[in-house]
Write a structure and sequence with these properties.
This protein is mostly helical. Helix content is 76%, strand content 0%. The longest helix is centred in the middle third of the chain and has 64 residues, at 2-65. It is rod-shaped.
């Protein structure tokens, strides 16, 4: 109901010729905004993947440097003798 009212109001205010041109321009703007949003989303998701894999590589290197039989260090837990 509201959409019909808006369309009739736009037809009265803009007229039939300008309404078609405005609709085309509005369609192009919406398409460009969607395309840009998808590109940004894709770019952000691609940026996250290498960061995760590099973190795993660093953790694998740390584990490889530890002698066998020792427990892996957890950097989030302070050692008993530290005052941090």
């Amino acid at each position: 109901m509201e959409l019909g009212f808006v369309l009739v109001l736009a037809l009265v205010v803009l007229g039939p010729d300008r309404m078609l041109g405005t609709a085309r321009v509005l369609g192009k703007v919406i398409r460009d905004v969607r395309r840009t949003t998808e590109e940004v989303t894709r770019s952000l998701s691609l940026d996250e993947e290498p960061l995760t894999s590099s973190q795993e590589t660093i953790k694998d290197r740390e584990l490889a440097q530890q002698p066998e039989g020792s427990k892996p260090r957890d950097s989030s837990i302070n050692s008993p003798g530290s005052d941090s």
